[in-house]
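Page header: ASSEMBLY MODEL / two components / 562 residues total.
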Amino acid sequence: MTAIDIVELYVFVLAAFVGYQVITRVPPLLHTPLMSATNAISGISLVGSLVAAGANHGTLSSLLGAIAVGSATINVVGGFIITDRMLKMFRRADKIDKTGAPRG
Amino acid sequence: MSEYLIQAAYLAASVLFILGLKSLTRPDSARRGMQQAAVGMLLAVVGTLLNHQIVRYDWIIGGLVVGTVVGIPLGFMVPMTAMPQRIAISHMFGALAATLVGVVEYREAAGHIDTMRMGALGFEVLFGALTVTGSFMAFGKLQELVPSRPVTYPGQNAVNIALFAGTLGLLVWVVLHPLAGALFYTMIALALVIGISMVLPIGGADMPVVISLLNSYAGLASSATGFAIGNNVLIIAGALDGASGFLLSVLMSKAMNRSFGNVLFGAFGSPVAATARTTEGLSVRSISAEDAALQLAYAKLVIVVPGYGMAVAQAQHQVRELAHLIERHGGTVKYAIHPVAGRMPGHMNVLLAEADVPYDRLYDMEEINDEFERADVALVIGANDVVNPAARSDRGSPIYGMPILNVDKAHSIIVLKRSMNPGFAGIENELFYDPKTSMLFGDAKASLTRLVAEVKNL
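Prediction written out in full:
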């Protein structure tokens, strides 16, 4: 095992720990947005996909890389949009009354 | 120089991701935090494009354009009721990206890869591939492209265990002998089969656990990608995703009274033995919309208990309208949300928020359970197992021990229900035979529309 691998293991464990601590405090109210948010964030595979698609390997590798770029982009673009759409809907009672939403 | 810029961009992105998730602990800060996380993502992408390994942009641009064209409608146009399948399919896309990156990496580097990286790469494609097909199956079940009931056959668990053991064996072999290309691809194929066979035996109501679990797997696959290509931002984002999915699956399985081991090995959804108490000889009291409306209009405290039936009937707007009328008559309306109501964690909250129900009226199970005894009316809309008192009292019941909403403590109970069919678990619900309970039969949306009209007439 090289020194770099050990550092990566530290990074993983600490990130998982921070993630666990932060996410424990997310109320059940926002669990669906949480899931779509982590989905959008996991679109970070885009970073690996870009290198796979742009590194001038053979055609097949580039094609697979391009599909990966496409899939990851779907999650990034769609994920952040839909998370925002959901979070926009969560409003307190006083905010809703002011904007005059109630009908009937 | 550019290497420092890239690392700085990755570091900034990691921090913004964590801050974004932290912002989700409060509804009023959440939106801004997630917008900052999106900026972080942009930074990471721009940083990556500086990478000297990237020499051509045609494939990249193609992928980005297609992904954006597909992603925008998936973000803007999917209705909130379809959120569970929307999330399931995006787990598939995430896992697909991770798997393909792994395959490319393997094709290009298999000859000169050390054991640690190869191990990471193996995990990456293994978790990635099983999440791809598993999520697709979950999507198919939620979208009802495939039967959403559990599909089981004799010896299923043995087959699954054999599959899993075989795949793990291949993983070990491939890590020790990276050049065994055929075995590498066989392992991927087996992982794809595992994904299918894992989700096949799972019924619709178990979906919250499955979706959370697949969320976790997709995250682990991303993290493994980070290890394989030596990229910290991937490791961090994947770990966050994995931790979140893990935590949600634990919460969901607790709310369904299943052990976590039971969840991990996917051995749920198996048919239950009908040893529970029967309700023979008991009778059900049905109520007219007029009487129900009268009861609701003069109640001081009404607690609404929404379930999947409300989502299916798309009745959330009518619920909100009724609540508004009750409030005009001087009553208070609160909503009691069970953790596994609906098909994914928090689904009911999103549906009600969309219908302009303020989030400070939505209460978790722990917050509201003590209030039922003060409630004049508990209005149950399309929920069944999560309000079944047998979970508390009947040791023979398959849902015994599952935490439930204390609806039976309310002064009176009105249940909106299509028919007397038992719920997902296939067990009778004593609540419906309680002398305090009256049943309003029919489609939830139609019933609520009638209730709204009746309350208006008072």
